[in-house]
Every structure is written in C-alpha cells, then in structure tokens.
Amino acid sequence: MAGTAVSGRLTWRAATLAEARWETPSARTLVLDVPDWPGHLPGQHVDVRLTAEDGYRAQRSYSIASAWPSSGDGKVELTIQRLDDGEVSPYLTDDVQVGDQIELRGPVGGWFVWRSKSTSPVTLLAGGSGVVPLMAMIRARADAGTKQPFRLIYSVRTPEDALYADELRRRVRDDAGLDVHFVYTRKTPDGWPAPPKRLDVAAVNTYGWPPDFAPDCYVCGPTTFVETAADILVALGHEPRRIRTERFGGTS
Which of 109, 64, 106, 58 is nearest to 86 (CA)? Predict the structure, then answer.
C-alpha cells in the first residue's frame, strides 16, 4: 500500500459524495466515492478544490479519517470542522449534498503516517479536529488486526465538541489494546473528577506511554497545542525522532 499511496497523488479526481453524517453540531463526515483511488496510509491528507460558477477556485487540505480502503472500494472519508468565517468548510458541512461532486487530489504526506508493520506502542495526542488523522490510525490498526497498544489523549473544549465519541467508547470497550483519555478545556461532563484545564505534563505522563517503552508519538492539532504537546513529550524524556507532528491554523 505504501507504494500505491504515492502513485497518482498529483491528479485531480472528481469525487462524488456517497454519504454524509454529523459527528458534532459543527463537524460533518463526508464519505466520498473516488474512482481510481490509489489507496492511502493513515495520517495522510488530501487537497479539496471547489470551483464557483464564475470560475473562482478555493482549495484547502483535509486529513483523511478512514483507514485504507478495503477491497479497492475507493471510499474516502473526510471529517470537516466548520469554521464560521471559512471559505470552504461551511460549504462542505452545510451545503454539499449526496450525489454532488468535488475535486480531490492526493493522498499527500509520507512522514506523519502509521504503518501496520510497526511494533512500537503508540501515543496519540489530539487537539480538537486534530483527532481526524489519528482516528484513521486507530481504525487502520483495528482493520489490520495488529497488537500494538495505542493510547489516545484527546483535548477538546467541551464533551459536545468531541469527534467520534461514541465510536471511541465502543472501540475501548471491545479492544483491550486501546485506551482513550479526554482533556476538557472549557466544560467537563457531569461528575468528571477534574476541572477544565489545558493539556499538561501530568496528563501526558499519566495517560501516555512512558519514554522507557520507546513509543511512537503522533501529535496533531492547532499550532499552539502541537508545540505544547511536543515540548511536554521532550521534557518527559521521549526521543524527538519518535515524535511526529501535524498542525493547522487557528486556536485551541
């Protein structure tokens, strides 16, 4: 799959929306049917291009949420977080309908990816919609039937903002090799044992893998979150070469 994930990545393809579902009140998953999709690795992203009737074009990059397509079905999932002042995301969350087409190019990226042949434990650190490529890794791990233990630390503003919350709970229940811990920065669920707070050393030290286990660490989210999380990992003694980061604009 790694080889096919490179082939054709610069080609624009007409992707048809086959299905859509809301993950939160402001985030929507698009299931796209992409003919001749070359396959992808969990952690990669795609470029999406929209063209207006007057010819104006807008382009944005979005992480792939799905594991690699099975049986060459060519289905690619993107989870889009609406930005109220955005140029592309409001259309993708509120306007595009099943049967509509958008242009898609990819997959893109070869560093921030997880491969099933890895044998190291994995710590995933997500801020907001930065969980999307990490969810692809969790799904790919399950599909591949590998045994590497995964720990996800997921920072969100409120419980209502958490993407894939039901699926994550189900996967933790059914898979002893997956642990998930939420960090709530604005509002916690009823009965939560701690007040709202940002990601800190204590959370990473308690819920991530210790550096002695030599885990692979993947960090994705807004720039400030990624910088903080990476600094914490280094301060705790993790090897910088094992820390892979992916960031996007905005605030956490």
Answer: 58
Please answer whether residues 204 and 234 qualify as being in contact, where contact means their C-beta atoms are separated by less than 8 angstroms: no
| CB neighbourhood size of 210 (10 A) | 13
Q: Which tops the pLDDT comparison, 186 or 5?
A: 186
Q: Which fold has domain 122-248?
A: Rossmann fold (3.40.50)
DSSP state of 10: T
CA 49 to chain centre: 20
Rg (CA), the chain: 18
Token reading at 73: 């079905």
What's the predicted TM-score (pTM) here?
0.92
pLDDT digits (tens, 9 = 90+) for 8-55: 568 899 999 999 999 999 999 999 999 889 899 999 999 999 998 888
Locate the domains of the chain by residue range.
Answer: 12-108, 122-248
Beta bridge partners of 101: 16
- Cβ atoms of 75 and 32 within 8 Å: the answer is yes
Give me the long-range contacts of 17-23 (CB less than 8 A, separation at least 24): 17/96, 17/97, 17/98, 17/99, 17/100, 17/101, 17/102, 18/75, 18/98, 19/98, 20/96, 20/97, 20/98, 23/79, 23/163, 23/164
Q: Which CATH class is domain 12-108?
A: mainly beta
Residue 185 pLDDT exceeds 60: yes
